[in-house]
Amino acid sequence: MRHMRTDEIRPDQEGDEIRIDGWLQESRNLGGIAFGIIRDRFGTVQVTVKKKENPEMADILAGISRESVVSVIGKVKRSDKTPRGFEIVPSEIRVESMAETPLPMGVVDKVGAELDTRLNNRFIDLRKRRVARIFEFKAEVLHSTRQYLRSEGFIEVNTPKIVAAGAEGGSTLFKVDYFGRNAYLAQSPQLYKQNLMAAGLERVFEIAPAFRAEASDTVRHLAEFMSIDVEMSFINSSEEVMDIAEGIAFSAVDHLAKNCKAIVDEAGIDLKLPKRPFRKIPYGEALEMAASEGVKLEFGEDLGTEGEKALGKAVINQYGEEFYFITDFPTELKKGTFYAMRRDDRPDLTTYFDLDYRGQEIVSGGRREHRIEKLAAQMKENNLDPTSFGFYIDAFKYGMPPHGGFGFGLERFLQKVLDLPNIREVILYPRDRLRLSP
Ligand code: ATP
Ligand code: MG
Protein backbone atom coordinates (compact mmCIF):
# COMPACT_ATOMS: atom_id res chain seq x y z
CA MET A 1 0.00 0.00 0.00
CA ARG A 2 1.38 3.39 -1.01
CA HIS A 3 2.31 5.85 1.75
CA MET A 4 0.60 9.24 1.42
CA ARG A 5 1.54 12.54 2.98
CA THR A 6 -1.27 13.88 5.13
CA ASP A 7 -1.54 16.98 2.92
CA GLU A 8 -1.99 14.87 -0.23
CA ILE A 9 -5.32 13.38 0.84
CA ARG A 10 -8.54 15.03 -0.33
CA PRO A 11 -12.25 14.42 0.43
CA ASP A 12 -12.91 13.45 -3.19
CA GLN A 13 -10.76 10.36 -2.66
CA GLU A 14 -13.76 8.98 -0.77
CA GLY A 15 -13.61 5.20 -0.73
CA ASP A 16 -9.92 4.94 -1.71
CA GLU A 17 -7.74 2.75 0.45
CA ILE A 18 -4.54 4.53 1.51
CA ARG A 19 -1.72 4.31 4.01
CA ILE A 20 -0.63 7.16 6.26
CA ASP A 21 2.30 7.16 8.64
CA GLY A 22 3.15 9.51 11.44
CA TRP A 23 2.94 10.32 15.09
CA LEU A 24 -0.25 9.77 17.06
CA GLN A 25 -0.69 13.31 18.33
CA GLU A 26 -3.68 12.39 20.46
CA SER A 27 -6.31 9.72 20.80
CA ARG A 28 -9.70 9.92 22.48
CA ASN A 29 -12.41 7.54 23.36
CA LEU A 30 -15.78 9.26 23.26
CA GLY A 31 -18.51 6.81 24.15
CA GLY A 32 -19.26 5.08 20.91
CA ILE A 33 -16.36 6.54 18.92
CA ALA A 34 -12.58 6.34 19.19
CA PHE A 35 -10.51 8.78 17.22
CA GLY A 36 -6.88 9.69 16.78
CA ILE A 37 -4.99 12.53 15.17
CA ILE A 38 -2.02 11.43 13.04
CA ARG A 39 0.64 14.05 12.33
CA ASP A 40 3.44 14.07 9.80
CA ARG A 41 5.64 16.97 8.67
CA PHE A 42 2.90 18.28 6.44
CA GLY A 43 -0.12 18.35 8.71
CA THR A 44 -2.64 16.14 10.49
CA VAL A 45 -5.51 13.81 9.64
CA GLN A 46 -8.17 12.27 11.80
CA VAL A 47 -8.66 8.51 12.12
CA THR A 48 -12.11 7.50 13.33
CA VAL A 49 -13.43 4.12 14.53
CA LYS A 50 -17.04 3.43 15.46
CA LYS A 51 -17.06 0.96 18.35
CA LYS A 52 -20.18 -0.73 17.04
CA GLU A 53 -18.50 -1.43 13.71
CA ASN A 54 -15.06 -2.44 14.93
CA PRO A 55 -14.71 -2.73 18.74
CA GLU A 56 -11.26 -4.34 18.50
CA MET A 57 -9.83 -1.51 16.40
CA ALA A 58 -11.32 1.07 18.77
CA ASP A 59 -9.50 -0.57 21.68
CA ILE A 60 -6.23 -0.72 19.74
CA LEU A 61 -6.41 2.99 18.91
CA ALA A 62 -7.31 3.98 22.45
CA GLY A 63 -4.41 1.93 23.82
CA ILE A 64 -1.64 3.67 21.90
CA SER A 65 0.30 6.31 23.84
CA ARG A 66 0.64 9.85 22.52
CA GLU A 67 3.55 10.48 20.10
CA SER A 68 3.93 6.82 19.17
CA VAL A 69 4.76 6.26 15.51
CA VAL A 70 1.96 4.43 13.73
CA SER A 71 1.15 3.20 10.26
CA VAL A 72 -2.52 3.24 9.36
CA ILE A 73 -4.24 1.57 6.41
CA GLY A 74 -7.79 2.66 5.85
CA LYS A 75 -10.44 4.21 3.65
CA VAL A 76 -11.03 7.89 3.02
CA LYS A 77 -14.51 8.96 4.12
CA ARG A 78 -16.07 12.40 3.71
CA SER A 79 -16.96 14.10 6.96
CA ASP A 80 -18.20 17.57 7.81
CA LYS A 81 -17.05 17.17 11.41
CA THR A 82 -13.30 17.38 10.69
CA PRO A 83 -11.40 20.49 9.59
CA ARG A 84 -10.12 18.79 6.43
CA GLY A 85 -13.54 17.52 5.30
CA PHE A 86 -12.65 13.82 5.57
CA GLU A 87 -11.53 11.18 8.01
CA ILE A 88 -9.79 7.84 7.70
CA VAL A 89 -11.63 4.69 8.73
CA PRO A 90 -8.84 2.22 9.51
CA SER A 91 -8.69 -1.45 8.64
CA GLU A 92 -5.23 -1.82 10.14
CA ILE A 93 -3.23 0.15 12.70
CA ARG A 94 0.37 -0.88 13.20
CA VAL A 95 2.48 0.58 16.00
CA GLU A 96 5.99 1.05 14.61
CA SER A 97 7.38 2.53 17.82
CA MET A 98 5.44 2.96 21.06
CA ALA A 99 6.24 6.17 22.97
CA GLU A 100 7.02 5.90 26.66
CA THR A 101 4.91 7.85 29.12
CA PRO A 102 5.06 10.46 30.42
CA LEU A 103 6.64 12.46 27.58
CA PRO A 104 9.59 14.69 28.63
CA MET A 105 7.59 17.61 27.20
CA GLY A 106 4.36 18.08 25.30
CA VAL A 107 4.00 18.73 21.59
CA VAL A 108 0.56 20.33 21.48
CA ASP A 109 0.23 21.55 25.08
CA LYS A 110 -1.03 25.07 25.54
CA VAL A 111 1.65 25.87 28.13
CA GLY A 112 5.07 26.15 26.53
CA ALA A 113 8.11 24.46 28.07
CA GLU A 114 11.21 26.42 29.15
CA LEU A 115 13.86 26.93 26.45
CA ASP A 116 16.30 24.67 28.32
CA THR A 117 13.79 21.81 28.50
CA ARG A 118 13.00 22.31 24.85
CA LEU A 119 16.65 22.24 23.83
CA ASN A 120 17.34 19.18 25.98
CA ASN A 121 14.54 17.44 24.09
CA ARG A 122 15.06 19.13 20.75
CA PHE A 123 13.76 16.12 18.78
CA ILE A 124 10.38 16.53 20.46
CA ASP A 125 10.47 20.33 20.34
CA LEU A 126 10.97 20.09 16.57
CA ARG A 127 7.76 18.09 16.22
CA LYS A 128 5.97 21.37 16.86
CA ARG A 129 5.13 22.80 13.49
CA ARG A 130 6.00 26.35 14.52
CA VAL A 131 9.49 25.26 15.56
CA ALA A 132 10.12 23.11 12.49
CA ARG A 133 9.07 26.08 10.36
CA ILE A 134 12.04 28.10 11.65
CA PHE A 135 14.38 25.61 10.03
CA GLU A 136 12.46 25.53 6.78
CA PHE A 137 12.87 29.29 6.89
CA LYS A 138 16.60 28.94 7.47
CA ALA A 139 16.93 26.56 4.53
CA GLU A 140 15.17 29.11 2.33
CA VAL A 141 17.58 31.86 3.38
CA LEU A 142 20.54 29.61 2.58
CA HIS A 143 18.99 28.82 -0.79
CA SER A 144 18.36 32.45 -1.72
CA THR A 145 21.84 33.46 -0.52
CA ARG A 146 23.53 30.85 -2.72
CA GLN A 147 21.35 31.82 -5.64
CA TYR A 148 22.11 35.51 -5.22
CA LEU A 149 25.87 35.13 -4.76
CA ARG A 150 26.19 32.75 -7.69
CA SER A 151 24.28 35.21 -9.86
CA GLU A 152 26.86 37.83 -8.85
CA GLY A 153 29.68 35.57 -10.03
CA PHE A 154 30.83 34.19 -6.66
CA ILE A 155 32.26 30.67 -6.32
CA GLU A 156 31.35 28.66 -3.24
CA VAL A 157 34.45 27.38 -1.43
CA ASN A 158 35.32 25.43 1.71
CA THR A 159 38.30 26.28 3.88
CA PRO A 160 39.74 24.36 6.86
CA LYS A 161 38.09 24.64 10.24
CA ILE A 162 41.12 23.26 12.08
CA VAL A 163 43.71 26.00 11.87
CA ALA A 164 47.10 26.97 13.23
CA ALA A 165 46.22 30.57 14.12
CA GLY A 166 43.15 32.72 14.65
CA ALA A 167 42.08 35.88 12.87
CA GLU A 168 40.18 37.59 15.65
CA GLY A 169 42.51 37.23 18.60
CA GLY A 170 43.28 34.75 21.30
CA SER A 171 40.55 35.16 23.86
CA THR A 172 37.80 33.49 21.84
CA LEU A 173 39.87 30.65 20.35
CA PHE A 174 39.04 27.01 21.06
CA LYS A 175 42.22 24.98 21.38
CA VAL A 176 42.40 21.43 20.07
CA ASP A 177 45.08 18.80 20.31
CA TYR A 178 46.28 18.23 16.75
CA PHE A 179 48.50 15.13 16.74
CA GLY A 180 50.30 16.51 19.76
CA ARG A 181 50.49 20.07 18.44
CA ASN A 182 48.30 23.03 19.33
CA ALA A 183 45.64 23.87 16.80
CA TYR A 184 42.42 25.91 16.95
CA LEU A 185 38.88 25.84 15.64
CA ALA A 186 38.55 28.57 13.01
CA GLN A 187 36.87 31.75 14.26
CA SER A 188 36.44 32.92 10.69
CA PRO A 189 37.78 31.95 7.25
CA GLN A 190 39.32 35.43 6.99
CA LEU A 191 42.93 34.49 6.32
CA TYR A 192 41.97 31.80 3.78
CA LYS A 193 39.50 34.01 1.95
CA GLN A 194 42.27 36.55 1.47
CA ASN A 195 44.66 33.81 0.34
CA LEU A 196 42.12 32.88 -2.34
CA MET A 197 42.18 36.46 -3.61
CA ALA A 198 45.95 36.08 -4.22
CA ALA A 199 45.07 32.77 -5.88
CA GLY A 200 42.99 34.65 -8.43
CA LEU A 201 39.55 33.23 -7.63
CA GLU A 202 38.36 36.88 -7.54
CA ARG A 203 34.94 36.30 -5.95
CA VAL A 204 34.38 33.61 -3.33
CA PHE A 205 31.91 32.81 -0.61
CA GLU A 206 31.75 30.20 2.11
CA ILE A 207 28.83 29.14 4.27
CA ALA A 208 30.23 27.26 7.23
CA PRO A 209 30.43 27.13 11.02
CA ALA A 210 32.61 29.65 12.82
CA PHE A 211 33.74 28.92 16.35
CA ARG A 212 34.04 31.49 19.12
CA ALA A 213 34.73 30.73 22.77
CA GLU A 214 32.35 33.49 23.88
CA ALA A 215 32.61 33.46 27.65
CA SER A 216 29.56 35.61 28.27
CA ASP A 217 26.03 34.30 28.16
CA THR A 218 23.92 36.49 25.88
CA VAL A 219 20.85 36.03 23.69
CA ARG A 220 22.90 36.82 20.55
CA HIS A 221 26.13 34.86 20.96
CA LEU A 222 26.77 31.22 20.18
CA ALA A 223 30.00 29.26 20.45
CA GLU A 224 29.32 27.81 17.00
CA PHE A 225 27.38 29.77 14.40
CA MET A 226 26.93 29.77 10.63
CA SER A 227 28.89 32.47 8.93
CA ILE A 228 28.20 33.55 5.37
CA ASP A 229 31.61 34.81 4.34
CA VAL A 230 32.31 36.76 1.19
CA GLU A 231 35.54 38.05 -0.34
CA MET A 232 35.94 39.94 -3.63
CA SER A 233 38.84 41.32 -5.68
CA PHE A 234 39.43 44.39 -7.81
CA ILE A 235 37.23 46.71 -5.82
CA ASN A 236 37.71 50.48 -5.67
CA SER A 237 35.68 51.15 -2.56
CA SER A 238 34.06 49.55 0.45
CA GLU A 239 30.67 50.54 -1.05
CA GLU A 240 31.07 47.71 -3.55
CA VAL A 241 31.45 45.27 -0.66
CA MET A 242 28.48 46.78 1.19
CA ASP A 243 26.40 46.36 -1.93
CA ILE A 244 26.85 42.58 -1.80
CA ALA A 245 26.05 42.36 1.94
CA GLU A 246 22.93 44.39 1.25
CA GLY A 247 22.10 42.10 -1.68
CA ILE A 248 22.14 39.00 0.55
CA ALA A 249 19.82 40.57 3.14
CA PHE A 250 17.50 42.04 0.52
CA SER A 251 17.28 38.90 -1.60
CA ALA A 252 16.55 36.80 1.50
CA VAL A 253 13.65 39.02 2.57
CA ASP A 254 12.44 39.24 -1.02
CA HIS A 255 12.61 35.46 -1.50
CA LEU A 256 10.74 34.79 1.74
CA ALA A 257 8.06 37.35 0.93
CA LYS A 258 7.54 36.03 -2.62
CA ASN A 259 7.99 32.29 -2.29
CA CYS A 260 7.40 31.32 1.30
CA LYS A 261 4.05 32.84 2.14
CA ALA A 262 2.89 29.83 4.14
CA ILE A 263 6.01 29.87 6.33
CA VAL A 264 5.88 33.64 6.79
CA ASP A 265 2.18 33.59 7.72
CA GLU A 266 2.63 30.73 10.13
CA ALA A 267 5.56 32.51 11.78
CA GLY A 268 3.18 35.45 12.26
CA ILE A 269 5.64 38.05 10.99
CA ASP A 270 5.14 41.14 8.90
CA LEU A 271 7.90 41.07 6.26
CA LYS A 272 8.58 44.52 4.86
CA LEU A 273 10.74 44.74 1.76
CA PRO A 274 13.53 47.16 2.71
CA LYS A 275 14.23 50.28 0.69
CA ARG A 276 17.49 50.14 -1.32
CA PRO A 277 20.20 51.25 -1.07
CA PHE A 278 20.38 50.80 2.69
CA ARG A 279 21.23 53.98 4.58
CA LYS A 280 24.92 54.51 5.37
CA ILE A 281 25.58 56.20 8.70
CA PRO A 282 29.17 57.22 9.45
CA TYR A 283 30.28 56.04 12.90
CA GLY A 284 30.52 59.65 14.23
CA GLU A 285 26.91 60.32 13.27
CA ALA A 286 25.86 56.94 14.68
CA LEU A 287 27.21 58.06 18.07
CA GLU A 288 25.10 61.22 17.95
CA MET A 289 22.02 59.22 17.02
CA ALA A 290 22.61 56.74 19.86
CA ALA A 291 23.03 59.73 22.22
CA SER A 292 19.64 61.05 21.08
CA GLU A 293 18.19 57.82 22.49
CA GLY A 294 20.04 58.18 25.77
CA VAL A 295 23.26 56.18 25.17
CA LYS A 296 26.29 58.51 25.31
CA LEU A 297 29.62 57.16 24.07
CA GLU A 298 33.07 58.67 23.47
CA PHE A 299 34.52 58.75 19.94
CA GLY A 300 36.51 55.53 19.53
CA GLU A 301 34.33 53.48 21.88
CA ASP A 302 32.57 50.33 20.73
CA LEU A 303 28.83 50.88 20.32
CA GLY A 304 28.16 47.71 22.28
CA THR A 305 24.75 46.13 22.76
CA GLU A 306 23.17 49.23 24.30
CA GLY A 307 24.61 51.62 21.71
CA GLU A 308 23.47 49.37 18.87
CA LYS A 309 19.95 49.16 20.29
CA ALA A 310 19.75 52.93 20.80
CA LEU A 311 20.93 53.54 17.24
CA GLY A 312 18.36 51.05 15.96
CA LYS A 313 15.64 52.97 17.78
CA ALA A 314 16.85 56.31 16.41
CA VAL A 315 16.92 55.00 12.81
CA ILE A 316 13.40 53.59 13.12
CA ASN A 317 12.11 56.83 14.68
CA GLN A 318 13.79 59.18 12.23
CA TYR A 319 13.62 57.21 8.99
CA GLY A 320 11.39 54.19 9.59
CA GLU A 321 14.18 51.90 8.30
CA GLU A 322 15.26 48.52 9.66
CA PHE A 323 18.55 47.90 7.81
CA TYR A 324 21.43 50.39 7.86
CA PHE A 325 25.20 50.42 7.61
CA ILE A 326 27.53 51.99 10.13
CA THR A 327 30.57 53.12 8.13
CA ASP A 328 34.01 54.67 8.71
CA PHE A 329 34.79 52.94 11.98
CA PRO A 330 37.70 54.73 13.67
CA THR A 331 41.16 53.22 13.32
CA GLU A 332 41.49 53.35 17.09
CA LEU A 333 38.50 51.02 17.46
CA LYS A 334 39.58 48.61 14.70
CA LYS A 335 43.22 48.50 15.70
CA GLY A 336 43.14 44.80 16.54
CA THR A 337 41.81 44.15 13.04
CA PHE A 338 45.29 44.57 11.58
CA TYR A 339 44.19 43.69 8.05
CA ALA A 340 41.60 46.51 7.84
CA MET A 341 42.36 49.18 5.25
CA ARG A 342 42.42 52.73 6.57
CA ARG A 343 41.08 55.63 4.58
CA ASP A 344 43.90 57.22 2.55
CA ASP A 345 42.47 60.73 3.11
CA ARG A 346 41.72 60.16 6.81
CA PRO A 347 44.10 57.57 8.36
CA ASP A 348 42.22 57.96 11.66
CA LEU A 349 39.25 56.24 9.99
CA THR A 350 38.97 52.80 8.40
CA THR A 351 37.00 51.49 5.44
CA TYR A 352 35.25 49.12 7.83
CA PHE A 353 31.51 48.85 8.22
CA ASP A 354 28.81 46.92 10.06
CA LEU A 355 25.36 46.15 8.74
CA ASP A 356 22.81 46.40 11.54
CA TYR A 357 19.23 45.16 11.49
CA ARG A 358 16.82 46.73 13.98
CA GLY A 359 19.51 47.51 16.53
CA GLN A 360 21.65 44.39 16.13
CA GLU A 361 24.88 43.86 14.23
CA ILE A 362 24.51 41.14 11.62
CA VAL A 363 27.53 41.82 9.35
CA SER A 364 31.08 43.18 9.74
CA GLY A 365 33.44 43.83 6.89
CA GLY A 366 35.39 46.28 4.79
CA ARG A 367 38.33 46.74 2.47
CA ARG A 368 41.45 44.83 3.40
CA GLU A 369 44.93 46.31 3.29
CA HIS A 370 46.53 44.60 0.27
CA ARG A 371 49.76 46.66 0.21
CA ILE A 372 52.32 44.56 2.04
CA GLU A 373 54.33 47.46 3.55
CA LYS A 374 51.21 48.99 5.09
CA LEU A 375 49.95 45.61 6.24
CA ALA A 376 53.28 44.80 7.90
CA ALA A 377 53.29 48.21 9.62
CA GLN A 378 49.76 47.63 10.94
CA MET A 379 50.77 44.24 12.24
CA LYS A 380 53.72 45.74 14.06
CA GLU A 381 51.45 48.33 15.69
CA ASN A 382 49.64 45.31 17.15
CA ASN A 383 52.92 43.75 18.30
CA LEU A 384 52.51 41.03 15.71
CA ASP A 385 55.54 39.77 13.81
CA PRO A 386 54.73 39.60 10.05
CA THR A 387 57.43 36.98 9.49
CA SER A 388 55.60 34.59 11.82
CA PHE A 389 52.44 34.79 9.67
CA GLY A 390 53.64 32.20 7.16
CA PHE A 391 51.13 31.48 4.41
CA TYR A 392 49.08 34.57 5.20
CA ILE A 393 51.82 37.13 4.56
CA ASP A 394 53.33 35.16 1.64
CA ALA A 395 50.14 35.71 -0.32
CA PHE A 396 50.81 39.47 -0.31
CA LYS A 397 54.34 39.14 -1.74
CA TYR A 398 53.65 37.88 -5.23
CA GLY A 399 50.71 39.86 -6.54
CA MET A 400 47.67 40.53 -4.36
CA PRO A 401 44.65 42.33 -5.83
CA PRO A 402 42.84 45.07 -3.96
CA HIS A 403 40.04 43.24 -2.16
CA GLY A 404 37.44 43.28 0.58
CA GLY A 405 34.74 41.20 2.15
CA PHE A 406 32.62 40.50 5.17
CA GLY A 407 31.16 37.94 7.55
CA PHE A 408 27.36 37.74 7.67
CA GLY A 409 25.92 35.99 10.74
CA LEU A 410 23.14 33.71 9.52
CA GLU A 411 21.55 33.15 12.95
CA ARG A 412 21.76 36.84 13.87
CA PHE A 413 19.86 37.66 10.71
CA LEU A 414 17.25 34.95 11.25
CA GLN A 415 16.69 35.90 14.86
CA LYS A 416 15.84 39.42 13.74
CA VAL A 417 13.70 38.49 10.73
CA LEU A 418 11.64 36.16 12.89
CA ASP A 419 11.73 38.59 15.81
CA LEU A 420 12.75 35.90 18.31
CA PRO A 421 14.09 36.77 21.74
CA ASN A 422 17.00 34.31 21.73
CA ILE A 423 19.47 33.28 19.00
CA ARG A 424 19.26 29.70 20.31
CA GLU A 425 15.78 29.45 18.73
CA VAL A 426 17.28 29.53 15.23
CA ILE A 427 19.98 26.87 15.55
CA LEU A 428 19.07 23.20 15.82
CA TYR A 429 21.56 22.22 18.51
CA PRO A 430 23.07 25.36 20.09
CA ARG A 431 26.55 25.41 21.49
CA ASP A 432 27.26 27.89 24.26
CA ARG A 433 29.34 28.12 27.42
CA LEU A 434 27.07 25.67 29.25
CA ARG A 435 25.67 23.52 26.49
CA LEU A 436 27.55 20.74 24.68
CA SER A 437 24.70 18.29 24.29
CA PRO A 438 22.56 17.32 22.48
P1 ATP B 1 29.69 41.06 18.38
O1 ATP B 1 30.48 42.32 18.62
O2 ATP B 1 28.25 41.32 18.11
O3 ATP B 1 29.94 40.01 19.37
P2 ATP B 1 31.74 40.61 16.45
O4 ATP B 1 31.90 41.99 15.93
O5 ATP B 1 32.68 40.07 17.43
O6 ATP B 1 30.24 40.44 17.01
P3 ATP B 1 32.50 39.65 13.89
O7 ATP B 1 33.84 39.11 14.16
O8 ATP B 1 32.35 40.98 13.29
O9 ATP B 1 31.64 39.58 15.22
O10 ATP B 1 31.70 38.52 13.08
C1 ATP B 1 30.94 38.78 11.90
C2 ATP B 1 29.48 38.44 12.13
O11 ATP B 1 29.33 37.13 12.63
C3 ATP B 1 28.80 39.31 13.18
O12 ATP B 1 28.34 40.52 12.62
C4 ATP B 1 27.66 38.42 13.63
O13 ATP B 1 26.60 38.47 12.71
C5 ATP B 1 28.25 37.05 13.54
N1 ATP B 1 28.73 36.60 14.87
C6 ATP B 1 29.91 36.92 15.45
N2 ATP B 1 30.05 36.32 16.64
C7 ATP B 1 28.93 35.58 16.81
C8 ATP B 1 28.49 34.71 17.84
N3 ATP B 1 29.24 34.46 18.90
N4 ATP B 1 27.29 34.11 17.70
C9 ATP B 1 26.53 34.34 16.61
N5 ATP B 1 26.90 35.14 15.59
C10 ATP B 1 28.08 35.76 15.69
MG1 MG C 1 31.73 42.79 14.12
Total of domains: 2
What is the fourth-level CATH superfamily of the largest domain? Bira Bifunctional Protein, Domain 2
Helicity range: 25-40%
Task: Report the major sheet.
Answer: 8 strands, mixed
Average pLDDT, all residues: 95
The run of helices and strands is EEEEHEEHHHEEEEHEEHHEHHEEEHHEH
* Oligomer type: single chain
What does this protein structure show overall?
The protein is an alpha+beta fold. The chain has 2 domains: 2-97, Nucleic acid-binding proteins (OB fold (Dihydrolipoamide Acetyltransferase, E2P), Beta Barrel), CATH 2.40.50.140; 129-278 and 321-426, Bira Bifunctional Protein, Domain 2 (BirA Bifunctional Protein, domain 2, 2-Layer Sandwich), CATH 3.30.930. It is built from 12 helices and 17 strands. The protein has an 8-stranded mixed β-sheet with strand order 7-11-12-17-16-15-14-13, with helices on both faces. Strands 1, 2, 3, 4, 5 and 6 form a 6-stranded mixed β-sheet that branches. Strands 8-10-9 form a 3-stranded antiparallel β-sheet, with no helix packed on it. Helix 4 crosses helix 7 (261-267). The site of adenosine-5'-triphosphate has 15 residues, from strand 12, strand 16, strand 17 and helix 12.
